C-alpha cells in the first residue's frame, strides 16, 4: 500500500486490533487439524459456525450502533476467535488431547522435531501464499486513489470465494482419506485385502475427477449469480470495474478444483518439500506478472496475475501426480516390484 493511501487510515487500526488475537487465531488454525487427525470433521464445523454467528451479530452492533466502523469489525472478529479458541481448548481437554498447564509450556525437542521438519516447509508455503495475497492487495490499492479498484477487487473476491470454500473443503477431505486408504488391511468377512497404494491411487483419480467436475459446475454457478453479486454495491463504476475480474474468478474455478485437491493430496502423502517449492515458484511467477500486467490492463491485470499463480500451482500438482509423488504410476510400479521380490 502506497504512503498516503486513503485506505491506510483504516488498515492500521484494523491490523492493530486483529493482532491482539494472534494466539487465539493460532489455536483456531491448529485445532481443526487436530480433530481431522482423529477423523472428527463435525466439531470444527460446529465451532466455526458458532464463531461465524457471533461475528455476524456483533458486526452491525459495533460498526453501526456504536459507530466504530472498521475497528468495530476487527473487534467483532477478535471476540469470535477468542470464543472459538476457548471452545476448542475445552473440547480438546475433555478428549484428553491437551492439558491446560501444558498450553503455555515449551515442549521437549524430541517431541517437536518431527513437527518442525514438516511444519517449516508448510510454513514456507504459507509465507508464499500470504505474500501473494499481500502483493495482490498492494497493487490493487495502487491502481487508483479513489478506492474503486479496491472495492471492485473485494467484489470479485466474494465471487471467487463462492466456489473456493467448497473446493477447499474437498482438499481437507483428501488430506485424511488418502492416508487411510494407503494402509493395507484384510477384510474379516471376505478375507480379501483392502487399501494399499494402488487403491489410494484410484481414490486420487476419483477425487481429481470430482475436483474438475465440481470446479466447472461452481464456475458456471458463479457466472449465474454474478448479476446478484453485482447488486451488492450501488456504485456503477465499481460494478463495471469488477465485471472482468469476476468473470476471471469464475473461469479459474475450472482448474482450481484440481489445484486445491491436488495440493491436499500432496499434504496427505507428506510431499511437503515439493508442495512448498511449487508454491514459491508460483508466487515468483505471480509477482512477475503483477509487475507487468496491471500496468497495461488495470484490475483485470491483477486477476490475470492471480491466474498465473494458480496455473503454476496446477503444473506442480500434475508433476507430483504423474512423476514424483508416492502414488505416481512409476513409483507404484517400483513399490509393486519390491513387494514381489520380498
A few lines on this structure:
The protein folds into 2 domains: 1-105, no CATH class; 115-341, no CATH class. It contains 12 helices and 2 strands, in the order H-H-H-H-H-H-E-E-H-H-H-H-H-H.
Q: What does this 3D model show about the protein?
A:
By secondary structure, this protein is mostly helical. The protein folds into two domains: 1-105, no CATH class; 115-341, no CATH class. It has twelve helices and two strands; from the N terminus they run H-H-H-H-H-H-E-E-H-H-H-H-H-H. The protein has helices spanning 8-19, 22-37, 42-65, 69-94, 109-143, 148-182, 197-230, 236-268, 272-290, 293-297, 299-324, 329-341; strands at 185-186, 193-194. The chain has a two-stranded antiparallel ribbon with strand order 1-2. 31% of the residues are buried.
Number of helices: 12
Question: Quick one: how many beta strands?
Answer: 2
Largest sheet: 2 strands, antiparallel
Rg to the nearest angstrom? 22 Å
- List low-confidence stretches: none
What is the helix/strand order? HHHHHHEEHHHHHH
User: What class do helices, strands and sheet pairing give?
Assistant: mainly alpha
Shape: globular
Question: What's the mean pLDDT score?
Answer: 88
Number of domains as seen in the coordinates: 2
Kindly, what is the distance between the CA atoms of the first and last residues, rounded to a whole number of angstroms? 61 Å
Proportion of beta-strand residues = under 5%
Share of residues in helices = over 70%
- The spatial strand order of the largest sheet comes to 1-2
Amino acid at each position: 500500500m502506497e504512503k498516503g493511501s486513503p485506505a491506510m487510515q483504516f488498515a492500521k487500526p484494523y491490523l492493530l486490533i486483529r493482532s491482539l488475537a494472534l494466539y487465539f487465531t493460532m489455536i483456531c488454525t491448529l485445532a481443526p487439524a487436530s480433530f481431522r487427525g482423529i477423523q472428527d470433521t463435525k466439531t470444527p464445523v460446529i465451532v466455526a459456525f458458532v464463531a461465524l454467528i457471533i461475528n455476524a451479530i456483533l458486526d452491525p452492533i459495533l460498526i453501526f450502533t456504536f459507530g466504530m466502523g472498521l475497528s468495530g469489525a476487527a473487534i467483532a472478529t477478535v471476540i469470535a476467535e477468542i470464543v472459538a479458541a476457548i471452545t476448542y481448548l475445552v473440547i480438546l481437554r475433555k478428549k484428553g488431547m491437551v492439558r491446560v498447564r501444558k498450553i503455555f509450556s515449551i515442549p521437549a525437542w524430541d517431541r517437536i522435531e518431527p513437527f518442525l521438519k514438516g511444519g517449516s516447509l508448510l510454513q514456507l508455503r504459507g509465507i508464499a501464499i500470504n505474500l501473494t495475497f499481500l502483493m495482490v492487495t498492494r497493487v490493487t490499492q495502487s491502481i487508483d486513489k479513489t478506492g474503486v479498484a479496491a472495492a471492485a477487487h473485494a467484489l470479485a473476491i466474494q465471487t471467487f470465494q463462492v466456489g473456493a470454500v467448497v473446493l477447499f473443503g474437498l482438499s481437507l477431505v483428501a488430506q485424511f482419506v488418502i492416508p487411510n486408504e494407503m494402509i493395507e488391511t484384510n477384510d474379516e468377512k471376505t478375507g480379501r485385502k483392502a487399501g494399499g497404494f494402488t487403491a489410494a491411487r484410484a481414490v486420487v483419480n476419483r477425487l481429481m475427477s470430482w475436483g474438475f467436475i465440481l470446479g466447472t459446475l461452481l464456475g458456471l454457478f458463479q457466472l449465474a449469480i454474478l448479476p446478484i453479486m453485482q447488486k451488492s454495491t450501488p456504485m456503477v463504476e465499481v460494478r463495471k470495474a469488477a465485471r472482468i475480474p469476476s468473470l476471471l474468478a469464475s473461469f479459474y474455478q475450472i482448474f482450481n478444483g484440481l489445484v486445491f485437491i491436488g495440493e491436499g493430496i500432496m499434504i496427505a502423502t507428506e510431499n511437503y518439500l515439493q508442495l512448498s517449492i511449487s508454491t514459491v515458484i508460483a508466487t515468483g511467477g505471480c509477482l512477475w506478472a503483477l509487475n507487468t500486467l496491471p500496468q497495461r490492463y488495470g484490475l483485470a491485470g491483477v486477476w490475470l496475475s492471480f491466474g498465473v499463480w494458480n496455473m503454476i500451482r496446477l503444473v506442480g500438482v500434475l508433476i507430483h501426480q504423474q512423476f514424483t509423488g508416492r502414488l505416481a504410476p512409476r513409483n507404484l510400479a517400483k513399490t509393486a516390484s519390491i513387494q514381489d521380490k520380498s
